[in-house]
Design brief:
single chain, alpha/beta, five-stranded mixed sheet, 8 helices
Length: 172
């Protein structure tokens, strides 16, 4: 999967870059921490393809979902769905990295390019991440720029080579 930004991602990157120029944002005044994390999460969610775990792929196959089609981001999203959209690198980690770097456009773009992907997982796999202490953390041996799927490997969650193609309103 190549990191090619779409228009939504470009707009979100510009918002993030501009926000990081504001001293009060960098000090996390007001709701800046939440807002910055939300923008980072939306940047990743704005991608046109989401990687699928092997268990989620089984679910798609059992439910005869044609993965050659493009689906609304809301189609498989929500509390009643057995699926979840999960960030391979938690947005809070990316936020910390951005807050501890020079907020120029090139660096912000590089960090966002390396911010990982959205992975479609089963809710049971989310519980597995939680039980391994990896809900909002990466494994201790992980370093930024390394394997963005390290949490899944550490928790024993297998990823398929399949992707869910998505479009429409960003779900968060």
């Amino acid at each position: 999967m190549v990191n090619k930004e779409n228009d939504d991602q470009i707009a979100l990157r510009c918002w993030i870059t501009s926000g990081l120029q504001i001293p009060e944002v960098r000090r996390l005044c007001g709701d800046a921490g939440y807002l910055l994390s939300n923008m980072i999460a939306k940047y990743t969610l704005a991608a046109s393809e989401y990687r699928i775990s092997s268990l989620a792929l089984n679910w798609f196959n059992e439910n005869k979902v044609d993965l050659s089609l493009v689906y609304s981001r809301s189609r498989f999203y929500g509390k009643s769905s057995p699926l979840m959209y999960e960030h391979s690198i938690p947005a809070g980690i990316i936020r910390s990295i951005l807050l501890n770097t020079d907020p120029n456009e090139e660096i912000v773009q590089d960090v966002l390019y390396k911010s990982g992907f959205v992975v479609v997982i089963m809710r049971s796999e989310d519980e597995t991440l939680n039980s391994h202490g990896l809900k909002k953390k990466m494994p201790q041996s992980w370093h930024f720029g390394g394997n963005s799927f390290a949490r899944y490997e550490a928790a024993g969650i297998e990823l398929s080579n399949a992707f869910l193609k998505v479009e429409g309103r960003i779900q968060r």
